[in-house]
Amino acid sequence: MKHVGAIVGATRTIAVPKENAMDILRQLHAMDLVDRTRKTVQQRGEVLIPLVGEPLIDLAVYRARTVEGTSLRPRSVPRDPQRILRERLDDEGIRPEDAPRKWKRIGDVVVLRVPPSGRKRAHAIGEIYGRVLGAKTVVDDISGVHGPLRTPDFRVLWGNGTKTVHVEAGVRYALDVAHVMFSPGNIAERMGIATRVHPGAIVVDLFAGIGYFTLPVALFSGAKTVHACELNPVAFRFLLENVRINRATNVVPLEGDCAKIAPAGVADWVIMGHFDAQRYLDVAFRCLRKNGTIVYHELCPKEQYPDGLTQRLSASARAHWMRVTSMRTRIVKSYAPGIVHAIAEVAVTPDPRGRSTETLMKGHSVRNSVIE
User: Fold this and answer.
1) Phi/psi at 238 (nearest 5 deg)?
2) Are residues 119 and 221 located together in one domain of the fold?
3) Which of 182, 267, 290 is CA-nearest to residue 217?
4) How do strand 2-3 and strand 171-176 relate by DSSP bridges?
5) 138 Cβ partners below 8 Å, 6+ apart?
6) CA separation for the pair 31, 109 (Å, rounded)
7) Total structural domains in the chain?
């Protein structure tokens, strides 16, 4: 970072105290929001970071603010890492089709998926990606995440440590990428729910993991209490660590099967961030205390979205003598060919007469959207 000299070219920037600059830069780079054509500079104890879009993070966490019309000196655009990777792969005699075309970064660990044709050179490929991308460790995603414990099927290609700390929008997630899942692409969803939970709310997170949704809600929504249930003992140990390092004093960690340990009749919000959520809808309704909202995730055939999703949730509400007052559905991303990761936020209220919710579904209370 350089001090401001003769500067030109108006742009939108984030002004952040120097001591918080690196943390917020990591988040902005992860979201591809930093304008690489302008220099990042220091000015009167602050760092000015040029932007190319709207920052989907809580700036108050970093004591940062947006500034319009700042003049910053242009910079030479850094070399494309894809080009450097192609050059290094070519130097080693590795064909482009044998190497991954994309990757994701979790803390200082790079996760990629080596094509079957490149398996014989997988370790060499891992070293090239690790050195070019400045990672501590590179792991190969063999077959994704499996089972109710959401266990990754990864192997180390290069480096010697899979434990890391991933910083996202002011939240620190300690984890071991070889033993617990983490999807850095879902940042907007994780942070978005924290803006919708109202201050003073009681929240039950039925599948807390290492704190994916628990921590943003606990830290930024003003929730009174977040009950965080987790079955996987490894993920639960990291949940405890993450509650500690983030000083989330309003989180109550609960280890075990949510069907047995989730508190009943207390929740204003219930979060169901697991693709097996449909099996646990009875648990979610049992957690609610009167009016409440259930945030429901599932893998849905694309041709069944949104009707299949809304019909399943409406039927479950009726079965629990609840009336749907609103339902908002959205697609987070494509999960597999013909399959989407879909979410519904369902607001319900007790209906002692068991009135059908179908009439509500015919009005304007259901809204659908797609988040890419």
Assistant:
1) -70, -35
2) no
3) 267
4) unpaired
5) 109, 110, 111, 112, 126, 127, 129, 130, 156, 157, 158, 159
6) 17
7) 3
For residues 285 and 140, state if they share a domain: no
Confirm if 223 and 203 have CB atoms less than 8 A apart. yes
Q: What is the four-CA torsion angle of 329, 333, 334, 336, rounded to 10 degrees? A: -100
**pLDDT tens string 122-160:** 999 999 999 998 899 999 988 777 777 777 888 999 998
Q: How far apart are CA 227 and CA 231, in angstroms?
A: 13
The answer to whether the pTM exceeds 0.70 is yes
197-212 burial, b if ≥16 CB within 10 A, otherwise e?
beeebbbbbbbbbbbb
Encoded tokens for 225: 């209490």
Q: What is the domain range of residue 262?
A: 183-370
User: Can you state the angle between helices 122-133 and 81-91, rounded to 10 degrees?
Assistant: 140
pLDDT in tens, 271-317: 999 888 889 999 999 999 989 999 999 988 888 888 888 999 999 99
> Based on the number of CB atoms within 10 Å of its own CB, is 101 exposed (0-12), middle (13-18) or buried (19 or more)?
exposed
Domain CATH number, residue 126: 3.30.300.110
Quick one: DSSP state of residue 347? E
Q: d(Cα 301, Cα 339) in Å, to the nearest integer?
A: 5
For residue 49, what are the β-bridge partners?
Answer: 14
Q: In this structure, what DSSP letter does residue 5 have?
A: -
Token readout for 205 is 């997170």
Nearest residue to 73 via CA among 1, 15, 4? 4
What residues contact residue 68 under an 8 Å CB cut-off, 6+ apart?
Answer: 12
